[in-house]
Amino acid sequence: MSLVPRLDIRQSQSLVMTPQLQQAIKLLALSNLEIEGFIAEEVERNPLLEASAAENSDAPDREPVAEVRDERVAADELVSGTGSGDEPTLDVDYATESHQQDSVADGGSGMDGALSMTGASASGVGGEDGPDLDAFPDTSLSLADHLLAQAGPAIPHEDAFIAAHLIDQIDEAGYLTVSLLDIANRLGVPLVRVEGVLATIQTFDPTGVGARDLAECLTLQAKEADRYDPCMALLIANLDLLARGELTRLKRICDVDDEDMADMIRELRGYDPKPGCRYGGEPAQSVTPDLFVARTKAGWAIEINAATLPRVLVNRSYYTELSGGQQDKASKAWLSDCLASANWLVKALDQRQRTIIKVATEIVKQQEAFFLKGVSHLRPLTLRQVADAIEMHESTVSRVTSNKYVSCARGLYELKYFFTSAIQSADGGEAVSAQAVKSAIRALIDTEGAKILSDDTLVELLNAKGFDIARRTVAKYREALGIGSSVQRRRAKALEGVR
């Protein structure tokens, strides 16, 4: 074996992901709202890019972000990196071309990025505009701020630091999460002093705040309502028996009859077990659809929600102005990079729209029975089935369906919702989706009435409906739906009977 240094030439193959390819893959997985933020960053970085409203899209020296092109262009050409480096030739038939709308409710003769499954030109669907979700308030006063505002005039100045520390230890539900002894030791003050400050805080709004457990929270609210008598105190002290539905034992402990017990339980139901949740916390986030699906005379129309997608324009006149001046070599290279990056982004966004439309079209085709008849007709579907049908890679379909929502006549659904596992039919027929089985379980339990159905009974009823399903699967689906066991539902029925 020679130990002398030498030069060798080796030939090898490797997959190199260019920055452009990485960007195209990243764009597929982003929702429309995330794309909007991404475009804003690119416009800030690249002087040749502009985000323009639809009404300014007729400028002759600028390129729109997306135009419907002939479908002979491979939908994942950009992602696979097989496309040519030059601008692709667009084969646009303006006689059948459709134009972009802000939403499916805008109506009109067509939709940009919309494809009709029958091959005909897609048409807009009229309808009433939905509520403006952005008009709802997204923030509110936090619980801590609300309590501190009340502590100012109610707590002596020398105890203000104790009150501030106690309020800081109250969680979002309104409960004090740290023992008073620990707080007293931490602050170096007597325990009785901390207890006195807490007693004052427990008089603040909302009633029940500052409690250390559920029983204390309900006690504070009962005292505020002037309903805290010895019988109510005993009921609150035995909440575990109430949870188990042992009403006979509770009536004996509280020494009340059926009518009084029913009255006390009604009173407890009117109290708030988490009073702090009325304030602050994370604001509810509205979900904006990325796609619209509507039934038309020609078939199903699938439309990109253009209201959440700004149009990206390449300002070629500005490029011409900059390139015509005196420039050094580095400046020319930078300007050329900006133009190439801008052109690539426009093409990548265009290809993203077409890929999403292509995947969504196949999903609607596969799940047409769901859109027509409801969740009970949802078919088993996998990513591979869609990928094979549209001749794309499975990972591309996975990225396209991530974080994307579709709005249809039946509501708002995530694209991932339409991919469900299969449950074999009991009679050997076509398999059904897990979502359809869950829907059947919920329907059976919703109509069970006074006779509570056990999991074994649900299995028998589902088998009679043609679902070949095991008891453990029924239990798993029932828990996924947030439905309690037969024992828990029986207790809840017993408690409802005393109202």
Task: Describe this protein's structure.
The protein is α+β, with helices and mostly antiparallel strands and 499 residues long. Helices cover 45% and strands 7% of the residues. The chain has 21 helices and nine strands. Strands 2-4-3-6-7 form a five-stranded mixed beta sheet, covered by helices on one side. A two-stranded antiparallel sheet has the order 1-5. The longest helix is centred in the C-terminal third of the chain and has 38 residues. The relative contact order is 0.12. About 17% of the residues have low confidence.
Keywords summarizing the entry:
7% strand; 499 residues; 5-stranded mixed β-sheet; alpha+beta
Structural class: alpha+beta
* Strand/helix succession: HHEHEHHHHHHHHHEEEHHHHHEEEEHHHH
Strand tally, please?
A: 9
User: Rg from C-alpha positions?
Assistant: 32 Å
Mean pLDDT: 77
* Bulk shape: extended
Distance N to C terminus: 92 Å
Helix content: 40-55%
**What order do the strands of the largest sheet run in, or round the barrel if closed?**
2-4-3-6-7
Stretches where pLDDT falls below 50 for ≥5 residues? Answer: 54-139
Please describe the biggest sheet, giving its number of strands, its sense, and whether it closes into a barrel: 5 strands, mixed
Supply the number of helical segments.
21
